[in-house]
Design a protein that fits this description.
The radius of gyration is 18 Å and the shape is globular. The protein folds into 2 domains: about 100 residues, no CATH class; about 50 residues. It has a 6-stranded antiparallel β-sheet with strand order 1-2-3-4-5-6, with no helix packed on it. Strands 7-8 form a two-stranded antiparallel sheet. It contains 2 helices and 8 strands; from the N terminus they run E-E-E-E-E-E-E-E-H-H. Helix 1 packs antiparallel against helix 2. It is α+β, with helices and mostly antiparallel strands.
């Protein structure tokens, strides 16, 4: 169990559980829950669960997630990739968990990274109001999108 403080909301505990599944595949479950180390009183807690099905070699073959606060669907949602990062306020380091299934195609990874980079640039601007660097990030996103042919090249 690892504690990773979030600068925005709360401290969280990320736990990894290993279970044996049928079909000789191991499954890992990651639970993210707030701890009680916050300075403000906790009004509500929320749980995000990520389940990763692994083949016998430990390679992800299935990823699903669910949240008790998800709009609409209340059942697990299948996905092919995920990027999860936590910033540790004490050490000033980022813990990352990047996973993708072995059947994810290169064009799907290109689109996933393109959309993630675009969202990161937006988030960076919202958090810092640094328009110059956010614009530089968006220019790279544009370049990345054109190079991977996700978006048409600008003339």
């Amino acid at each position: 169990m690892l504690d990773y403080p979030s600068p925005i909301f709360a401290n969280y505990t990320l736990t990894e559980n290993r279970e044996q599944r049928t079909e000789n595949r191991e499954q890992r479950t990651y639970n993210l829950q707030p701890t009680t180390k916050m300075s403000d009183p906790i009004a509500k807690t929320s749980t995000l669960t990520v389940k990763v099905g692994l083949d016998p070699a430990g390679i992800p073959i299935a990823i699903e997630w669910e949240s008790e606060d998800a709009l609409g669907k209340k059942e697990p949602v299948d996905c092919k990739a995920m990027l999860l990062s936590f910033f540790n306020a004490q050490t000033k380091e980022t813990m990352k968990l990047d996973l993708w299934t072995k059947d994810m195609q290169v064009d799907e990874m290109d689109r996933f990274i393109f959309q993630t980079l675009r969202a990161m640039a937006d988030t960076y601007f919202k958090a810092t109001q640094n328009n110059k660097l956010a614009a530089d990030m968006q220019r790279f996103v544009q370049y990345f999108g054109e190079q991977t042919e996700i978006i048409p090249r600008q003339q």
